[in-house]
Amino acid sequence: MSLIQIAWRNFCHRSLSSSLTTLSLALGVGLVVLVLSIFGIISEAFSRNASVGYNLVVGPKGSALQLTLNSVYYLSQPIENLPFTEYMEFFSKPERAEMVRRYGGDPKLGERDGEYVGFVAGGYAIPLALGDYYGEFRAVGTTTDFFEKLRHGPNVDEPFTFKEGRAFKAFTQENGYFEAVLGSRVASEMGMHAGDVFYPTHGDPEGKGHGQGFKIVGILDPTGTPNDRATFVNLEGFYLLNNHSKPLTGDEVIVENDDWKQLDPEHKPLSIPQREVTSILVRNGNLMFAPGMQNKINEGLQAQAAAPVGEIAKLMTAIVGPLLKALLAITLITCVVAAVGVLVAIYNSMNDRRRDIAVMRALGARRDTVTTIILAESLIIALIGGVLGWFLAHFAIWCASGYIEEQTGVQATMFTTSTYELAVLPLVIALALLAGFLPAWSAYRTDVGSNLAA
Fold this sequence. Notes:
single chain; alpha+beta; 2 domains; eleven-stranded mixed beta sheet; two-stranded antiparallel ribbon
Protein backbone atom coordinates (compact mmCIF):
# COMPACT_ATOMS: atom_id res chain seq x y z
CA MET A 1 0.00 0.00 0.00
CA SER A 2 1.44 3.39 -0.99
CA LEU A 3 1.89 6.25 1.44
CA ILE A 4 -0.77 8.29 -0.39
CA GLN A 5 -3.28 5.44 0.10
CA ILE A 6 -2.45 5.29 3.80
CA ALA A 7 -2.92 9.08 4.05
CA TRP A 8 -6.25 8.76 2.24
CA ARG A 9 -7.39 6.03 4.65
CA ASN A 10 -6.48 8.29 7.57
CA PHE A 11 -8.50 11.09 5.91
CA CYS A 12 -11.53 8.80 5.49
CA HIS A 13 -11.18 7.29 8.98
CA ARG A 14 -11.81 10.71 10.53
CA SER A 15 -14.37 11.64 7.90
CA LEU A 16 -16.30 14.24 9.92
CA SER A 17 -13.24 16.13 11.14
CA SER A 18 -11.53 15.88 7.73
CA SER A 19 -14.66 17.00 5.86
CA LEU A 20 -15.21 20.01 8.10
CA THR A 21 -11.57 21.05 7.77
CA THR A 22 -11.73 20.63 3.99
CA LEU A 23 -15.02 22.55 3.77
CA SER A 24 -13.58 25.39 5.84
CA LEU A 25 -10.59 25.55 3.52
CA ALA A 26 -12.85 25.39 0.45
CA LEU A 27 -14.96 28.31 1.66
CA GLY A 28 -11.85 30.40 2.27
CA VAL A 29 -10.42 29.58 -1.15
CA GLY A 30 -13.81 30.16 -2.77
CA LEU A 31 -14.08 33.62 -1.23
CA VAL A 32 -10.62 34.54 -2.44
CA VAL A 33 -11.21 33.23 -5.97
CA LEU A 34 -14.61 34.94 -6.16
CA VAL A 35 -13.18 38.32 -5.19
CA LEU A 36 -10.24 38.03 -7.59
CA SER A 37 -12.51 36.83 -10.44
CA ILE A 38 -14.91 39.73 -9.98
CA PHE A 39 -11.97 42.12 -9.88
CA GLY A 40 -10.73 40.61 -13.15
CA ILE A 41 -14.15 40.96 -14.74
CA ILE A 42 -14.42 44.63 -13.74
CA SER A 43 -10.89 45.35 -14.96
CA GLU A 44 -11.63 43.68 -18.29
CA ALA A 45 -14.85 45.64 -18.67
CA PHE A 46 -13.10 48.98 -18.15
CA SER A 47 -10.12 48.11 -20.32
CA ARG A 48 -12.12 46.62 -23.18
CA ASN A 49 -14.71 49.39 -23.26
CA ALA A 50 -11.91 51.94 -23.48
CA SER A 51 -10.99 50.37 -26.85
CA VAL A 52 -13.68 52.10 -28.88
CA GLY A 53 -13.95 53.07 -32.52
CA TYR A 54 -12.69 56.59 -31.80
CA ASN A 55 -9.24 57.41 -30.45
CA LEU A 56 -9.84 60.83 -28.89
CA VAL A 57 -12.57 62.56 -26.93
CA VAL A 58 -12.69 66.36 -27.14
CA GLY A 59 -14.44 68.42 -24.51
CA PRO A 60 -14.12 71.56 -22.35
CA LYS A 61 -11.02 72.23 -20.27
CA GLY A 62 -10.98 70.32 -16.99
CA SER A 63 -10.38 66.76 -15.86
CA ALA A 64 -9.46 64.48 -18.76
CA LEU A 65 -10.58 61.45 -16.73
CA GLN A 66 -13.95 63.04 -15.99
CA LEU A 67 -14.34 63.81 -19.69
CA THR A 68 -13.58 60.15 -20.53
CA LEU A 69 -15.91 58.70 -17.90
CA ASN A 70 -18.69 61.03 -19.00
CA SER A 71 -18.36 60.57 -22.76
CA VAL A 72 -17.29 56.91 -23.00
CA TYR A 73 -19.02 55.31 -20.01
CA TYR A 74 -21.82 57.86 -19.44
CA LEU A 75 -20.67 58.21 -15.83
CA SER A 76 -19.85 61.32 -13.81
CA GLN A 77 -21.22 64.73 -14.77
CA PRO A 78 -20.34 66.85 -17.82
CA ILE A 79 -17.57 69.38 -17.17
CA GLU A 80 -19.25 72.12 -19.21
CA ASN A 81 -20.23 72.60 -22.84
CA LEU A 82 -18.33 73.67 -25.94
CA PRO A 83 -19.73 76.09 -28.52
CA PHE A 84 -20.88 74.41 -31.71
CA THR A 85 -18.21 76.32 -33.61
CA GLU A 86 -15.58 74.17 -31.86
CA TYR A 87 -17.23 71.10 -33.39
CA MET A 88 -17.18 72.82 -36.78
CA GLU A 89 -13.37 73.04 -36.61
CA PHE A 90 -13.21 69.36 -37.66
CA PHE A 91 -14.89 70.01 -41.01
CA SER A 92 -13.85 71.36 -44.39
CA LYS A 93 -14.89 74.69 -45.87
CA PRO A 94 -17.78 73.24 -47.98
CA GLU A 95 -19.12 71.27 -44.99
CA ARG A 96 -18.94 74.32 -42.75
CA ALA A 97 -20.71 76.43 -45.36
CA GLU A 98 -23.48 73.80 -45.54
CA MET A 99 -23.90 73.94 -41.75
CA VAL A 100 -24.27 77.73 -41.93
CA ARG A 101 -26.84 77.36 -44.71
CA ARG A 102 -28.74 74.61 -42.90
CA TYR A 103 -28.85 76.08 -39.40
CA GLY A 104 -28.23 79.78 -39.82
CA GLY A 105 -25.19 81.63 -38.54
CA ASP A 106 -22.38 83.97 -39.48
CA PRO A 107 -21.50 83.39 -43.18
CA LYS A 108 -17.82 83.90 -42.36
CA LEU A 109 -17.84 80.51 -40.59
CA GLY A 110 -18.19 78.88 -44.00
CA GLU A 111 -15.35 80.79 -45.64
CA ARG A 112 -12.46 78.63 -44.32
CA ASP A 113 -11.52 75.09 -43.42
CA GLY A 114 -11.69 74.01 -39.81
CA GLU A 115 -8.43 74.04 -37.83
CA TYR A 116 -8.36 70.27 -37.39
CA VAL A 117 -9.75 69.11 -40.71
CA GLY A 118 -6.33 67.95 -41.94
CA PHE A 119 -5.90 65.72 -38.89
CA VAL A 120 -9.32 64.07 -39.27
CA ALA A 121 -9.35 63.50 -43.05
CA GLY A 122 -10.65 59.98 -43.61
CA GLY A 123 -11.97 59.73 -40.04
CA TYR A 124 -14.92 61.34 -38.29
CA ALA A 125 -16.05 63.69 -35.55
CA ILE A 126 -19.33 62.84 -33.80
CA PRO A 127 -20.92 65.29 -31.34
CA LEU A 128 -22.52 64.32 -28.02
CA ALA A 129 -24.92 66.46 -26.01
CA LEU A 130 -25.53 65.27 -22.44
CA GLY A 131 -27.55 66.51 -19.52
CA ASP A 132 -30.89 64.68 -19.70
CA TYR A 133 -32.00 61.33 -18.32
CA TYR A 134 -34.55 58.65 -18.98
CA GLY A 135 -35.05 57.05 -15.60
CA GLU A 136 -31.56 56.34 -14.29
CA PHE A 137 -30.10 56.18 -17.80
CA ARG A 138 -28.39 58.95 -19.73
CA ALA A 139 -30.13 60.54 -22.69
CA VAL A 140 -27.44 61.22 -25.29
CA GLY A 141 -28.05 63.69 -28.10
CA THR A 142 -26.05 62.78 -31.19
CA THR A 143 -26.22 62.50 -34.98
CA THR A 144 -26.89 59.62 -37.37
CA ASP A 145 -23.11 59.20 -37.73
CA PHE A 146 -23.07 57.55 -34.31
CA PHE A 147 -24.76 54.42 -35.67
CA GLU A 148 -23.30 54.63 -39.17
CA LYS A 149 -19.61 55.17 -38.36
CA LEU A 150 -18.95 53.80 -34.87
CA ARG A 151 -18.04 50.13 -34.39
CA HIS A 152 -17.82 47.86 -31.37
CA GLY A 153 -16.83 44.29 -30.48
CA PRO A 154 -13.52 42.62 -29.55
CA ASN A 155 -11.89 43.86 -32.77
CA VAL A 156 -13.91 47.09 -32.92
CA ASP A 157 -15.26 46.14 -36.34
CA GLU A 158 -18.89 45.21 -35.65
CA PRO A 159 -21.65 47.64 -36.69
CA PHE A 160 -24.66 48.33 -34.51
CA THR A 161 -27.57 45.97 -35.09
CA PHE A 162 -31.14 46.31 -33.92
CA LYS A 163 -33.34 43.97 -31.95
CA GLU A 164 -36.28 46.11 -33.00
CA GLY A 165 -36.70 48.87 -35.56
CA ARG A 166 -33.91 51.03 -36.97
CA ALA A 167 -31.56 53.92 -36.22
CA PHE A 168 -33.12 57.34 -35.94
CA LYS A 169 -33.00 59.64 -38.94
CA ALA A 170 -32.06 63.31 -39.13
CA PHE A 171 -35.64 64.25 -40.01
CA THR A 172 -38.83 62.41 -40.93
CA GLN A 173 -42.24 63.72 -41.86
CA GLU A 174 -43.83 61.46 -39.25
CA ASN A 175 -41.69 62.29 -36.20
CA GLY A 176 -39.79 65.41 -37.23
CA TYR A 177 -36.57 65.62 -35.22
CA PHE A 178 -37.91 63.66 -32.27
CA GLU A 179 -36.73 60.09 -32.82
CA ALA A 180 -34.72 57.97 -30.40
CA VAL A 181 -32.91 54.64 -30.08
CA LEU A 182 -32.68 52.74 -26.79
CA GLY A 183 -29.79 50.58 -25.59
CA SER A 184 -30.69 46.98 -24.84
CA ARG A 185 -30.52 47.32 -21.06
CA VAL A 186 -32.58 50.53 -21.07
CA ALA A 187 -35.32 48.89 -23.10
CA SER A 188 -35.30 45.81 -20.89
CA GLU A 189 -35.45 47.61 -17.55
CA MET A 190 -37.89 50.30 -18.67
CA GLY A 191 -40.12 47.85 -20.56
CA MET A 192 -40.08 49.91 -23.77
CA HIS A 193 -40.41 48.86 -27.39
CA ALA A 194 -40.13 50.44 -30.82
CA GLY A 195 -43.14 52.66 -31.35
CA ASP A 196 -43.38 53.85 -27.73
CA VAL A 197 -42.74 57.44 -26.67
CA PHE A 198 -40.57 58.53 -23.74
CA TYR A 199 -40.07 61.90 -22.08
CA PRO A 200 -36.54 62.77 -20.87
CA THR A 201 -35.99 64.62 -17.61
CA HIS A 202 -33.66 67.58 -17.30
CA GLY A 203 -30.47 67.56 -15.23
CA ASP A 204 -30.85 64.34 -13.21
CA PRO A 205 -33.08 61.24 -12.99
CA GLU A 206 -35.50 63.07 -10.69
CA GLY A 207 -35.38 66.32 -12.66
CA LYS A 208 -38.22 68.16 -14.33
CA GLY A 209 -39.64 66.36 -17.34
CA HIS A 210 -39.61 67.95 -20.77
CA GLY A 211 -42.97 68.42 -22.43
CA GLN A 212 -41.75 67.07 -25.76
CA GLY A 213 -41.44 63.30 -26.11
CA PHE A 214 -39.27 61.21 -28.43
CA LYS A 215 -40.61 58.38 -30.56
CA ILE A 216 -38.58 55.20 -30.04
CA VAL A 217 -37.77 53.89 -33.51
CA GLY A 218 -35.15 51.28 -32.58
CA ILE A 219 -33.85 48.99 -29.82
CA LEU A 220 -30.17 48.06 -30.05
CA ASP A 221 -28.97 44.49 -29.77
CA PRO A 222 -26.67 43.98 -26.75
CA THR A 223 -23.16 45.25 -27.49
CA GLY A 224 -21.36 44.62 -24.20
CA THR A 225 -20.49 48.33 -24.04
CA PRO A 226 -21.82 51.31 -22.06
CA ASN A 227 -24.10 51.99 -25.04
CA ASP A 228 -26.38 49.25 -23.71
CA ARG A 229 -27.37 51.56 -20.85
CA ALA A 230 -27.89 54.78 -22.80
CA THR A 231 -30.75 56.37 -24.67
CA PHE A 232 -29.81 58.06 -27.93
CA VAL A 233 -31.87 60.92 -29.30
CA ASN A 234 -31.59 62.99 -32.43
CA LEU A 235 -29.33 65.95 -31.67
CA GLU A 236 -31.71 68.36 -33.43
CA GLY A 237 -34.57 67.27 -31.20
CA PHE A 238 -32.34 67.51 -28.14
CA TYR A 239 -31.57 71.14 -28.99
CA LEU A 240 -35.25 71.98 -29.34
CA LEU A 241 -36.14 70.85 -25.80
CA ASN A 242 -36.79 73.51 -23.18
CA ASN A 243 -33.66 75.09 -21.67
CA HIS A 244 -31.36 73.42 -24.18
CA SER A 245 -30.66 76.41 -26.38
CA LYS A 246 -27.91 78.88 -25.57
CA PRO A 247 -29.33 82.43 -25.28
CA LEU A 248 -28.27 84.84 -27.98
CA THR A 249 -26.29 87.88 -26.85
CA GLY A 250 -27.43 90.15 -29.65
CA ASP A 251 -23.97 90.39 -31.24
CA GLU A 252 -24.32 87.28 -33.40
CA VAL A 253 -24.65 87.54 -37.16
CA ILE A 254 -27.25 85.05 -38.34
CA VAL A 255 -28.31 84.40 -41.91
CA GLU A 256 -31.29 82.08 -41.88
CA ASN A 257 -32.06 79.41 -44.43
CA ASP A 258 -35.16 80.35 -46.44
CA ASP A 259 -36.32 76.71 -46.22
CA TRP A 260 -37.08 77.14 -42.49
CA LYS A 261 -38.82 80.50 -42.48
CA GLN A 262 -42.26 78.96 -42.89
CA LEU A 263 -41.81 76.37 -40.14
CA ASP A 264 -43.07 76.72 -36.59
CA PRO A 265 -40.41 76.99 -33.84
CA GLU A 266 -40.82 73.32 -32.90
CA HIS A 267 -39.47 72.28 -36.30
CA LYS A 268 -36.99 75.07 -36.86
CA PRO A 269 -33.39 74.04 -36.05
CA LEU A 270 -31.43 76.16 -33.63
CA SER A 271 -28.96 78.57 -35.15
CA ILE A 272 -25.24 77.91 -34.72
CA PRO A 273 -24.77 80.52 -31.92
CA GLN A 274 -27.52 78.79 -29.93
CA ARG A 275 -25.88 75.35 -30.16
CA GLU A 276 -23.48 73.67 -27.76
CA VAL A 277 -21.96 70.19 -27.54
CA THR A 278 -20.79 68.37 -24.42
CA SER A 279 -18.03 66.44 -26.16
CA ILE A 280 -16.86 65.20 -29.54
CA LEU A 281 -15.81 61.65 -30.41
CA VAL A 282 -12.95 61.84 -32.87
CA ARG A 283 -11.17 59.27 -35.00
CA ASN A 284 -8.21 60.41 -37.06
CA GLY A 285 -8.03 59.12 -40.60
CA ASN A 286 -4.37 58.40 -39.91
CA LEU A 287 -3.72 57.58 -36.25
CA MET A 288 -0.21 59.00 -36.56
CA PHE A 289 -1.85 62.44 -36.66
CA ALA A 290 -3.56 61.93 -33.29
CA PRO A 291 -0.73 63.21 -31.03
CA GLY A 292 -0.29 66.35 -33.12
CA MET A 293 -4.00 67.14 -33.09
CA GLN A 294 -4.25 66.37 -29.38
CA ASN A 295 -1.43 68.80 -28.62
CA LYS A 296 -2.94 71.48 -30.85
CA ILE A 297 -6.34 71.20 -29.16
CA ASN A 298 -4.85 71.18 -25.67
CA GLU A 299 -2.84 74.32 -26.43
CA GLY A 300 -6.07 76.19 -27.17
CA LEU A 301 -8.13 78.11 -24.61
CA GLN A 302 -11.48 76.31 -24.80
CA ALA A 303 -11.06 72.60 -25.44
CA GLN A 304 -9.02 69.60 -24.39
CA ALA A 305 -8.48 66.24 -26.08
CA ALA A 306 -8.19 63.01 -24.09
CA ALA A 307 -7.25 59.51 -25.25
CA PRO A 308 -9.75 57.11 -23.59
CA VAL A 309 -7.30 54.19 -23.52
CA GLY A 310 -4.65 56.30 -21.80
CA GLU A 311 -7.04 57.79 -19.26
CA ILE A 312 -8.43 54.40 -18.28
CA ALA A 313 -4.88 53.08 -17.96
CA LYS A 314 -4.18 55.94 -15.53
CA LEU A 315 -7.36 55.10 -13.63
CA MET A 316 -6.31 51.47 -13.34
CA THR A 317 -2.87 52.48 -12.11
CA ALA A 318 -3.97 55.17 -9.68
CA ILE A 319 -7.09 53.58 -8.18
CA VAL A 320 -7.46 49.98 -9.24
CA GLY A 321 -3.76 49.16 -8.71
CA PRO A 322 -3.81 49.89 -4.96
CA LEU A 323 -7.13 48.08 -4.68
CA LEU A 324 -5.56 45.03 -6.28
CA LYS A 325 -2.69 45.13 -3.78
CA ALA A 326 -5.21 45.24 -0.94
CA LEU A 327 -7.08 42.28 -2.41
CA LEU A 328 -3.88 40.31 -2.78
CA ALA A 329 -3.00 41.06 0.86
CA ILE A 330 -6.44 39.84 1.92
CA THR A 331 -5.92 36.76 -0.24
CA LEU A 332 -2.66 35.95 1.51
CA ILE A 333 -4.20 36.46 4.97
CA THR A 334 -7.18 34.25 4.09
CA CYS A 335 -4.93 31.51 2.78
CA VAL A 336 -2.77 31.67 5.92
CA VAL A 337 -5.88 31.40 8.10
CA ALA A 338 -7.02 28.39 6.05
CA ALA A 339 -3.59 26.78 6.44
CA VAL A 340 -3.71 27.33 10.21
CA GLY A 341 -7.07 25.56 10.22
CA VAL A 342 -5.45 22.57 8.53
CA LEU A 343 -2.61 22.66 11.07
CA VAL A 344 -4.98 22.75 14.05
CA ALA A 345 -7.16 19.95 12.71
CA ILE A 346 -4.28 17.56 12.02
CA TYR A 347 -2.36 18.48 15.15
CA ASN A 348 -5.40 17.94 17.38
CA SER A 349 -5.83 14.50 15.85
CA MET A 350 -2.29 13.50 16.80
CA ASN A 351 -3.22 12.55 20.37
CA ASP A 352 -5.68 9.97 19.02
CA ARG A 353 -3.13 8.64 16.55
CA ARG A 354 -0.03 8.26 18.65
CA ARG A 355 -0.70 4.53 19.29
CA ASP A 356 -1.30 3.98 15.53
CA ILE A 357 1.95 5.73 14.74
CA ALA A 358 3.78 3.69 17.40
CA VAL A 359 2.40 0.46 15.87
CA MET A 360 3.60 1.54 12.41
CA ARG A 361 7.03 2.27 13.82
CA ALA A 362 7.10 -1.10 15.62
CA LEU A 363 6.27 -2.86 12.37
CA GLY A 364 9.29 -1.25 10.70
CA ALA A 365 8.10 2.09 9.40
CA ARG A 366 10.83 4.70 9.53
CA ARG A 367 10.40 8.16 11.05
CA ASP A 368 10.50 9.86 7.62
CA THR A 369 7.79 7.49 6.34
CA VAL A 370 5.41 8.51 9.13
CA THR A 371 6.26 12.17 8.53
CA THR A 372 5.52 11.82 4.83
CA ILE A 373 2.10 10.28 5.56
CA ILE A 374 1.12 13.25 7.74
CA LEU A 375 2.30 15.71 5.06
CA ALA A 376 0.41 13.72 2.40
CA GLU A 377 -2.75 14.01 4.47
CA SER A 378 -2.27 17.77 4.66
CA LEU A 379 -1.75 17.79 0.90
CA ILE A 380 -4.99 15.85 0.33
CA ILE A 381 -6.96 18.37 2.39
CA ALA A 382 -5.35 21.26 0.51
CA LEU A 383 -6.02 19.76 -2.92
CA ILE A 384 -9.64 18.84 -2.24
CA GLY A 385 -10.38 22.10 -0.44
CA GLY A 386 -8.62 24.23 -3.06
CA VAL A 387 -10.31 22.59 -6.06
CA LEU A 388 -13.71 22.54 -4.33
CA GLY A 389 -13.35 26.23 -3.42
CA TRP A 390 -12.43 27.10 -7.00
CA PHE A 391 -15.49 25.28 -8.36
CA LEU A 392 -17.78 26.84 -5.76
CA ALA A 393 -16.58 30.34 -6.70
CA HIS A 394 -16.91 29.76 -10.43
CA PHE A 395 -20.27 28.08 -10.03
CA ALA A 396 -21.47 31.24 -8.27
CA ILE A 397 -20.06 33.35 -11.12
CA TRP A 398 -21.73 31.08 -13.69
CA CYS A 399 -25.06 31.41 -11.88
CA ALA A 400 -24.72 35.21 -12.02
CA SER A 401 -23.26 35.28 -15.55
CA GLY A 402 -26.39 36.78 -17.08
CA TYR A 403 -26.43 39.65 -14.60
CA ILE A 404 -22.66 40.18 -14.96
CA GLU A 405 -22.90 40.33 -18.75
CA GLU A 406 -25.84 42.71 -18.55
CA GLN A 407 -24.01 45.05 -16.19
CA THR A 408 -20.49 44.92 -17.62
CA GLY A 409 -20.73 43.36 -21.07
CA VAL A 410 -18.22 40.68 -20.05
CA GLN A 411 -19.27 37.09 -20.79
CA ALA A 412 -18.44 35.07 -17.68
CA THR A 413 -18.43 31.28 -18.07
CA MET A 414 -17.75 28.50 -15.58
CA PHE A 415 -14.10 28.49 -16.59
CA THR A 416 -13.46 32.23 -16.92
CA THR A 417 -10.34 32.84 -14.86
CA SER A 418 -8.34 35.90 -13.89
CA THR A 419 -4.56 36.01 -13.88
CA TYR A 420 -4.14 36.23 -10.13
CA GLU A 421 -6.52 33.45 -9.11
CA LEU A 422 -4.35 30.89 -10.90
CA ALA A 423 -1.79 31.38 -8.13
CA VAL A 424 -4.29 30.68 -5.33
CA LEU A 425 -4.23 26.86 -5.49
CA PRO A 426 -0.40 26.55 -5.51
CA LEU A 427 -0.29 29.05 -2.63
CA VAL A 428 -2.83 27.06 -0.62
CA ILE A 429 -0.96 23.80 -1.25
CA ALA A 430 2.34 25.35 -0.20
CA LEU A 431 0.86 26.82 2.97
CA ALA A 432 -0.94 23.56 3.82
CA LEU A 433 2.30 21.59 3.45
CA LEU A 434 4.02 24.17 5.62
CA ALA A 435 1.23 23.85 8.18
CA GLY A 436 1.60 20.06 8.11
CA PHE A 437 5.20 20.21 9.29
CA LEU A 438 4.28 20.78 12.96
CA PRO A 439 2.03 17.70 13.29
CA ALA A 440 4.50 15.80 11.08
CA TRP A 441 7.30 16.76 13.49
CA SER A 442 5.11 15.64 16.38
CA ALA A 443 4.65 12.28 14.63
CA TYR A 444 8.36 12.11 13.95
CA ARG A 445 9.12 12.45 17.67
CA THR A 446 6.51 9.92 18.81
CA ASP A 447 8.05 7.49 21.31
CA VAL A 448 7.29 3.90 20.35
CA GLY A 449 7.68 2.23 23.73
CA SER A 450 5.57 4.60 25.84
CA ASN A 451 2.74 4.78 23.30
CA LEU A 452 2.56 1.00 22.78
CA ALA A 453 2.35 0.50 26.53
CA ALA A 454 -0.33 3.19 26.94
